[in-house]
Design brief:
Elements lengths: L3 H17 L2 H13 L3 H7 L7 H14 L4 H13 L4 H14 L4 H9 L4 H14 L4 H18 L2 H17 L3 H15 L2
Helix pairs in contact: 1-2, 2-4, 4-5, 5-6, 6-7, 7-8, 8-9, 9-10, 10-11
Length: about 190
């Protein structure tokens, strides 16, 4: 549980930023806040501000500077960097550090796969994620979508076969009518090639 002072300080910094738009002041305040509190308290206190990457990123930078193997902070930092357009190389490197720090972090694996700059690389990474987390439906959807994209972009029959097989698995696992309809349409499109 984080102390009320931390929650209030973060909320105050965010409120002032929203009122003034002064990013320099926000960054200074976030740095002071982050350096004064333990990582777990900071990460918990960031929850209400998780959609403000200009808040999450700087706080997580301080945490990662202090604790380079804090997987939770690395994942949050990689996500903040991804959402602010820092580029796939930087995000991939941070996500890979998070995977190493906590191999059970599906979020770290997802960011790592997402951040590969090439369609083939992304497809291969999503295959690794599905192998690691076989019940992860989102990973399976991303694998199917990336394999289908690779098949179309490079006229790759192996990728097409992988996309079809993965969509078939998704169809077999689907529990809602909307899921079955969407997957069936994707399969029809792929089989019609």
């Amino acid at each position: 549980m984080h102390e009320p002072d931390l929650t209030q300080r973060l909320a105050g910094a965010v409120a002032d930023y929203r009122r003034t738009g002064d990013i320099g002041q926000l960054l200074d305040r976030l740095d002071a806040i982050a350096r004064a509190h333990p990582a777990d308290q900071l990460l918990d206190a960031l929850t209400p501000h998780r959609d403000l990457q200009e808040v999450v990123g700087p706080v997580c930078e301080v945490i990662v500077e202090r604790e380079p193997t804090n997987a939770r902070a690395l994942v949050a930092l990689a996500q903040a960097y991804w959402l602010t357009g820092r580029g796939p190389e930087v995000v991939s490197e941070i996500a890979d550090r998070a995977r190493t720090a906590d191999p059970s972090s599906a979020a770290a694996w997802h960011l790592w796969a997402l951040a590969d700059g090439s369609p083939r690389g992304r497809t291969e990474r999503w295959q690794a994620v599905v192998a690691r987390f076989p019940d992860d439906a989102m990973a399976r959807v991303n694998l199917a979508d990336n394999a289908a994209g690779l098949a179309g972009a490079e006229d790759d029959p192996v990728a097409l076969k992988l996309a079809i097989a993965t969509y078939e698995e998704l169809l077999a696992r689907a529990t809602r009518d909307e899921e079955r309809t969407a997957v069936s349409r994707a399969l029809e499109a792929l089989r019609g090639r």
